Structures are given as C-alpha cells and as structure tokens.
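Pair request: fold both.
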Amino acid sequence: MRKKEIIAMLLAGGQGSRMGILSQEKAKPAIAFGGKYRIIDFPMSNCINSGIDTVGVMTQYQPLLLNKHIGIGIPWDLDRSNGGVTILAPHVKGEMGEFYSGSANAAYQNIDFIDAHNPEYVLILGGDHIYKMDYSKWFDFHKKNNCDCSIAVKEVPIEEASRFGIMNTREDDRVYEFEEKPKKPKSNLASMGNYIFRWDILREALITVNKAHPDADFGKHVIPLMLEEDRVMYAYRFQDYWMDVGTLESYWVSNMDLIKTLPDFNLYEDFWKIYTDADHQPPQYLGPDCDVRSSILSEGCQVYGRVYNSVLGPGVLIEDGAIVRDSIVMGGCVIGKNSVLDRCIIDENSRVGSGVVMGVGDNVPNEDKPKIYDTGLTVVGERSVVPDGVTIGKNCVIYGATLSADYPGSRIESGKSVIRYAEEVI
C-alpha cells in the first residue's frame, strides 16, 4: 500500500441523545438533512472535494443505516483499491470486544488501520456538522506553521462562548490554553471538533491518554496533554457557515437556513457539490390546486396541498387540503388530507392521517425530556403512524403505530408523548 500524506478519520459513532426520537434507531450522522442528504454527506463530500481520498469512518451506535448509506463510497468517488472509504466498527480483540468509549479511544482502537496507510498527517473530523470546508487550505496552513496539531475554530458571539470548548490564542493564533465551556470565556474562538495532527505525535498521545483514561477524548485529554507538552498548536479560523446539529432546534434551524431567498448555506454551488447515495426517483409533481412557497422539494414529491417554508424529503406525499408550515418532512412520509402541521419534524416513512392538527397550543416543555423538547417543535419518529382526526400540541413526541385510543378525546396537550413500541401492537 502506497504511503499517504494525509488520511481522514471521521467520528460517526455517537448516539446523539439530544436529537431525541430522531436518533432512536439510527446514528446522528445518518439523520436525513436538507431533503435528500444525510448529515454525514457533508464531511464526506468535503474530503473528496479537498483531495483527501482515504477516509476511515468510525461507527458504533445503530450503524446499520449509516453503513448501508456509505456502502463502498461510490457517490463520493471513494470506491478505490488504494485508499477509499473504510467502515471501522469496534472489533473483537482476544476473547471479547471493546466498544469505543470516547473520541480519542475510537482513534486509539484504530491505530493499526492508520499505521497501514503510513500517513504523515491525520485529519480528525466530527460526523455531525453541516458546513463546506476546503481542508486543503487548512492543511497548507498547518504545514506552513509546522504544527504538531491545528484545530479548526469558528468565532461565536462572546455571550454564547460558554457553550463551547474555547481556544485561547496569542496574536499569531498559536494556542496556549483550552477551556471547556468556561463560565468567563477569554476569547470567542470555539473549537469545531476538527483537528489535523502529525501522526507520530498523535500516535504517542493516543497511547498515553488511553492508559490513563478509559473514556479518552480529544477535547478533554489529547489537546490538554499536547498543551502540557508544549506542542506546536495553532487555531485555524473558519469563516463560513458551520452548524453543529447537536440539538433538535439547531437541526431545524439549519434546515430552515436552506430555504431563505439568499440562503446562509447554499447547496447549489457547482464548484463544491455535496454528494449522497440517492435512489433514482421520479420528478416532483405539483397538483393543480397546490401552493408551494419558499420550500425545498426533493425528487419524487407529490404536493396537492400547501407547503410553506418547509423541507420535504424524497417521495413525500402531501394530500389535498393539507398545510405544512415551517416543518421538516423526511423521505417516504404521507401527510393526509386536510391535516395542518406547524413547526414539526416528521421522520422517515411515517404517515400522518387525515384531519390531524399538529404543533398547536402553548410552548410547554415535554414532561419526560424537557431539556430536549423545549423550543416548540413537535417530533414524529421513524415509521410512525398518527391516526386521523387528532390534535397534538407543541413539544410532543409521537413514536410507533399509534392508535386513536392513545389520544383521549382525540387530543394530547403540549409537552405530552405517545410512544408505542412494535411489540405493543397486535
């Protein structure tokens, strides 16, 4: 195998617990985004657009859909004999397996894979960010400054800096301190969770931190160790759109960003395409009485009702009289006749019956998970069914083939959940 100057290792094993029911059956990087894409498509496309042709994808939580989506890497031109894309799941060592217990632990468990490519540099990427980035420009910066490690950073409003890992730098952007979610931040340079390392330096650090920390993490352990060792570390400032879709609200906002007249994040630039594994679909069909405004309609959509400021995935059917407003409806869903959806997220292959009203009432946090569902979004999980004629409030969670009997008086108030697992259905 020929030596590679740089390879990418993509962290895609996280559960994404703050994504609620959307990550119930799939890893967060596999969640649909912007209609026909999945979140992982963005770092994957950034790699091939930047000339990086060797990518290891470290998976763990609910990896089936993610593995199927990536396949052998054909959509990203990563189906190669020398390099390409490799799925790296936790594997058996000796008599038992060992799960990834932290981001740096995942890289540590794949030292043999990295060594096999004998790279000079390793690019570590999060698998759950929405952005377009030319890693080759960052790589040039890294080499120009003779970095042992460089960290991609994004300037955030100083009043929000306490929510991030903050890199404190000198005037030339050399990092002298890292603070995880500081109460009184000294700067507004938020770590994007993406790093370039010299492989010999990183390899040594991975071995050291994994001896001391079973849950070894890049931000908590590797970066502080390198600072302690006075390694050459620089912050690389990224100026363009970046969204960490770590919560339902940020996921919804980043989808809504796509449909502005002048979008903050443009999916239609020929010079930096986002690639995905998409089935061939028939064209969209708009019925004679439909009304569609400021929305994204993916291939195969049929719209007979009204759609405003929304994102529809492939093969979605909006029936006569239905109104979908400020919502995300993922692929394969059906919204029944005369139903009204307002600020909702409907996961893939779900059916909302006729005459349903969803997303109304007061903004009452969800009684089971108030920290996840508290911004007024109502979420329907994958392959769920909402029966005809029910009214559903804000911050509600619907999951499974629910029945009319699950909605006393044909209604559930804001902040309630209706969960019906498959074994409950007779």
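--- second member of the pair ---
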Amino acid sequence: MKIFAVLKKYLTIITISLSVLSLFTGCTRKAESQITAENNAAKQIKELQNHLENSGLIDKQRYSIINQLANNYLAQKDYQGLILFLTDWVEKNPKDMYNSYWLLMTAYAYLSTGAEPVAEYYFDKILQQSQDLLIKGNSVHFLCLQNLIQISKTPAHRIKYFNELINLFPDNVNRTELYLRLALEYQNDSMWDQALSTYRLFLEQKDATTIQIAGEPDAYKNARHFVDFYDASKDWTSDPSKNWTFESLPELEEAVKKAIKNYDWKTLDSYKAKVNFFSMSWKQDEMDANAQSEFSMRSFMRGNRIRFNDTLDEASTPNEAYLKTWGWSTYIPVWYLYFRKVNFPIDPDINGNWEWAGIYMGNKL
C-alpha cells in the first residue's frame, strides 16, 4: 500500500510538472508567434514603403499602397506610427488628391488615442484647406462635420458646423432635427434672434409635431412655446396689463385662490396664460388641438361650489406645481390647476416668473 501511495505522489508531481511545462511552452509559442507576426508586418511595411518611392506610380496605385500601409498600422494599433506616416506624407506631397482622406485617417487615429482637441483640429483643417473627396461613396467633408458636432465643446463651433451640414448636405441630413438642435445652440449662446428664426424653421417642417429627437422628448412643445411666448410678449412693453405672469409661485397661488373664493371668473380668466393654455386629461398632450380650446371660467363657476386644497400637491417641483380643486362639474368635478415656471431667458424681467399654464381634468392617474 505504501508503494502505491508513493507512486501516486510521484505521478501527481509529474502531471503538475507537465502542465507547467505545457503552459510555459504555450506562452513561449504565443510570444514567438506574436514576434513573428510583428516582424512580418514590419517587413511588409518596409516593402510597401519601398514600392511607394517608385516615381512611376499612377495616383490609384499610390493610393492603394498608402491605404494598405495605413491599414497595417491600424491592425497593429500603432496609432502614433500611423499619424507620423500620414502627416509626413501630406506635408511632403501637398498636391496629392487624396490628402483629405489621409488627414481624415489622422483625425480618427487621434480620436482612438483620446486626443479629441487634436482630432478636432484635423477635422476642421480638412474643411478649411482640403477639397472634398468621395471615399466608398462617403463625403470626407460630411464625415468631418458629423464628428465635429460630436466632439466640439463650444456652442459657437457647433453652430458653425450645423449650418454647414444644412447648407452643404441638405439631402444627407434630417433638417427638421438639425433646425431644432441649431436653435438650441443659438439659445445656449444667447443669440436670441437667430434662435427665434431657427425655431420658426423647425416648426414649419411637416414632421415637426411627430419627430422623435434623442434627448429632446418635448422638442415641438418647447419650440412652439418659445415662439408663441415671444410673439405675445411684444405687446407687454406698450401694455403691461397683457403680461399674465407672476413674480413668484406663492403670489400666483394666492391670486388664483382669492379669485376662486370670490367666484370672480373675470379675474380668473385674466390669469390664464395667453400662450398655449390647455385643458385636458392626464393622458393627453398639451399640444393637441382639442387640448387648447378656449373657454371662460364663467361657465363652470356659476351655480357650483368650488373648493381647493390649502396646499399645493406633493408632486409639485421647483419648476412645476399643481393645485387640486373640485366642484367644477357633475361629470368631472376634480381639476388640477397647473402652474409653471417661465423659461424665457430672452427677457430677464420675465424669465423665472410663474404662469398658470393649464388644467388637468380628473384625478391623477
């Protein structure tokens, strides 16, 4: 029995040793294979560079060699080698018709290394200094503009690139979406006249009411409100009484409650926003045509006993508030009055005020 135990022990040691040896051999072979691949790639690059020095090459042959060289650098993820090779080529061969493409690859290489500011420089350089070029059916300038919009950090730059996309490639882009995004950039840069005119262009598009824009779920509603609010506010200078906003939420809440308590329907009507005031169920959209039908509070206050909660609803936020009221009708007695903070930076005297923007009919869902 002891002999078997000893044999078993030595067999275990031998098995472990063989496993370690196999692992070491595998790693060695893998390292050797990698070295061989790198040597072959370096050899191929050297051969291609030698071919490139042939003065008898035509443009297409030269393009093919440079493109293959670039792909070899990319296959090895040698971005620095690719950048040095391409920028050196462009500098020494300023008349190469494919330089815009080589600089495009340079910009992508910088993107791959996380150097976005340098990539932005090259994308913009292509637009300013190189003629456009179609590579596999894709415009180099179009690709540059798409990338610049993604990586540029300032509204002024993005405004420039959005305008160039719309003007130079109107058939390659969704103009409805770009008008909206351009208007937002103008607004971010406090260029109010340009923002207003671009919002109008957006609203004129046939699909403005239905388009789904990533990150902008209320695109049509916000644009419509901005334009309509601006148009209505032009009368406030000559007639301040037409301004329906209140400086604070407590002031608006107190005024509305007082008018309800006194059954003063005329005053209550005057508090309603004169832009896109809505009355709808909780499931409707406030931009629906039937949600913005005009009516007077008189029809619902006469003969009814209207009541309201002492405090605003718990769902209220720093920008929106709800006041529960009831007694308006037999069919739908409960109404939530909806108050909204005004977002109108074009006029600092109005921006941040509060308005009574609409009515949600029925209990909250």
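Observation on the second member. The mean pLDDT is 86.
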